[in-house]
Q: What sequence folds into this?
């Protein structure tokens, strides 16, 4: 979709602009939505682009429709419907009915693609507005704490807006809202009250509207902005906790839905298909669909939905720019040696490298796993039959375990290190504030903590001390600390701390505020993970129930049925058919393994908010299911 004008939108406006401008009065609400979504395109240009996209999709639909029509005419047998037509018309109908239905199909596909384009453009602003609202509400408590710390240091309200607008990578959509206010004041020469009022009208977040409304009242009445921001920071933190609780309650409902739809449901259908097979009415295609389509695709789509609606940040935060940078061009030889040392330290130490970049292990584990896959093909030449897959599956499952296990191990090591840093940072900042409050200079306070610290954060504190020993400023030493860890919560805390230190000389107060912000973020994170861990347990229980029932069917039920049908006279008794015990055991093993792989991904997304976290669960469940069916059946 579009966010700004470009060559394509200008082309669309040249073609459909006149038509779009005819109904300009209809697009008032669209214009409001585009502003709230920060889609920097005039309504008439947006509508013209929608028209062009719809026409292009209609042409694509026509091509697909013609291909589908050719397939219908040549390969599909159309039933002869009993229609009472006079003889000449009936003859023409029977002769050309394929062309008629093919034309109808092509027309329907063309219209469907055309209206799909219109529909997508219609809902797109609303989708962006909803996404921006979610991001603003999630980051607003931290942004208000940032504003409070700057206000506490004596910075004016407009300068505070400029500061938060400068950190778009850290505060995301909140920064964009304040950047718009700054633009209105500095470029469009609007007064502060007008700029805030327009921001209230255009922001999609009710929380931000509430903040700006109160700010206008405080400014108009000459109240204390600092006290107001402090109170709002506490208020929005509590609201964030309430919203998180509501999301966790919703997640509980989703967990129950998942177990019903993709654990109990497929298990029930598998049992029914097995019983029907014994009665001679089984449908192997239905069984294959359940195991190889419904369980994997359904579980993956469910995990994707949870991932999309989860209010959790993904990826790595941006690097914070250091305030003072050495001009290394003056000392090229030193620059060369420093880069050489960094290369040896980072890339010639494989364990350090893999802890920092767990995905690098895939460069080795995937080829190792592919060796097993190739070996499977060599030992079992391919032929299109389920029997071939039953012979090949051992190589495939072992290959998956080899590929994924190392990544899961190193990813968890990295994640535990990051979680430890998040947990200990508020403690470190509070210790620093206490030492500074007693009269100890900040440099000596850090040196003392580095010497006495026994936690996992000791090495990082020593690095901060070393930077200070080399006369690097406190701000840049802390920035380097955040850039080494690279976690969103820590990046926001250090951003707040650094900006506040630049605006005030009251180091102790700034450290206290920063520690409080870090503690609040850690509290929310721990509450979220603590509650979501329960859903991981639920997923594991449902998996073991699934695999337990499948195991019992494989070891007892199938054996009894096979023996009973084998003793029956030719043709069976009362319609009972003989079944292949080996076939169903293989199919049930696949059901258990596929359930484990994708249930693990769901557990990772529900428990920790990422597919990467789910890989360890997938490996555990895959290994358990495979070993159980291979060694004990």
A:
């Amino acid at each position: 979709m579009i966010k700004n004008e470009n060559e394509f939108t200008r082309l669309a406006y040249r073609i459909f602009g006149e038509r779009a401008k005819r109904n300009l009065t209809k697009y008032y609400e669209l214009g409001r939505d585009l502003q709230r979504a920060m889609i920097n395109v005039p309504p008439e240009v947006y509508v013209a682009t929608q028209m062009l996209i719809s026409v292009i999709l209609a042409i694509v639909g026509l091509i697909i429709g013609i291909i589908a029509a050719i397939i219908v005419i040549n390969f599909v047998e159309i039933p002869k419907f009993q229609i009472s037509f006079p003889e000449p018309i009936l003859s023409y109908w029977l002769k050309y009915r394929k062309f008629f239905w093919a034309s109808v199909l092509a027309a329907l596909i063309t219209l469907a693609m055309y209206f799909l384009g219109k529909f997508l453009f219609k809902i797109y602003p609303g989708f962006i507005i909803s996404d921006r609202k979610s991001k603003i509400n999630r980051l607003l408590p931290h942004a208000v704490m940032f504003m409070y710390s700057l206000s506490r240091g004596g910075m004016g309200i407009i300068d505070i807006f400029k500061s938060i607008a400068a950190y778009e990578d850290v505060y995301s959509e909140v920064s964009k809202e304040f950047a718009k206010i700054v633009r209105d004041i500095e470029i469009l020469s609007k007064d502060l009250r007008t700029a805030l009022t327009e921001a209230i009208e255009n922001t999609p977040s009710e929380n931000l509207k509430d903040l700006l409304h109160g700010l206008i009242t405080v400014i108009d009445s000459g109240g204390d902005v600092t006290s107001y921001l402090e109170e709002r920071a506490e208020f929005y933190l509590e609201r964030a906790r309430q919203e998180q609780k509501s999301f966790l309650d919703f997640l509980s409902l989703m967990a129950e839905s998942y177990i019903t739809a993709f654990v109990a449901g497929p298990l029930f259908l598998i049992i029914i298909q097995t019983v029907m097979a014994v009665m001679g009415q089984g449908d192997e295609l239905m069984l294959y669909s359940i195991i190889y389509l419904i369980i994997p695709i359904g579980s993956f789509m469910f995990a994707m939905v949870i991932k999309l609606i989860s209010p959790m940040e993904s990826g790595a935060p941006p690097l914070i720019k250091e305030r003072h940078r050495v001009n290394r061009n003056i000392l090229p030889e030193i620059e060369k040696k420093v880069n050489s040392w960094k290369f040896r330290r980072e890339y010639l130490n494989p364990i350090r490298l893999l802890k920092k970049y767990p995905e690098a292990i895939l460069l080795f584990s995937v080829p190792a796993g592919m060796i097993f896959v190739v070996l499977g093909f060599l030992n079992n030449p391919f032929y299109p039959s389920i029997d071939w897959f039953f012979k090949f599956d051992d190589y495939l499952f072992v290959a998956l375990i080899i590929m994924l296990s190392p990544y899961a191990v190193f990813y968890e090591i990295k994640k535990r290190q990051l979680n430890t840093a998040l947990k200990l940072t508020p403690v470190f900042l509070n210790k620093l504030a206490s030492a500074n409050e007693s009269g100890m200079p900040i440099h000596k306070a850090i040196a003392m903590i580095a010497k006495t610290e026994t936690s996992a954060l000791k090495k990082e504190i020593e690095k901060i001390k070393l930077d200070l020993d080399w006369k690097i400023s406190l701000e840049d030493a802390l920035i380097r600390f955040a850039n080494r860890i690279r976690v969103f919560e820590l990046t926001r805390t250090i951003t707040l701390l650094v900006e506040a230190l630049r605006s005030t000389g009251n180091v102790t107060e700034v450290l206290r505020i920063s520690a409080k912000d870090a503690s609040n973020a850690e509290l929310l994170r721990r509450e979220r993970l603590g509650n979501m861990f329960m859903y991981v347990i639920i997923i594991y229980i449902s998996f073991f129930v699934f695999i337990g029932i499948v195991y019992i069917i494989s070891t007892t039920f199938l054996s009894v049925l096979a023996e009973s049908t084998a003793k029956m006279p030719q043709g069976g008794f009362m319609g009972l058919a003989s079944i292949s015990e080996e076939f169903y055991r293989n199919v049930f093993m696949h059901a258990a393994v596929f359930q484990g792989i994708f249930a693990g991904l769901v557990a990772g997304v529900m428990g920790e908010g990422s597919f990467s976290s789910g890989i360890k669960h997938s490996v555990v469940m895959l290994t358990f299911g495979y070993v159980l069916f291979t060694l004990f059946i």
In short: Confidence is low (pLDDT under 50) at residues 571-576. Residues 247-313+361-400+529-631 form one domain.
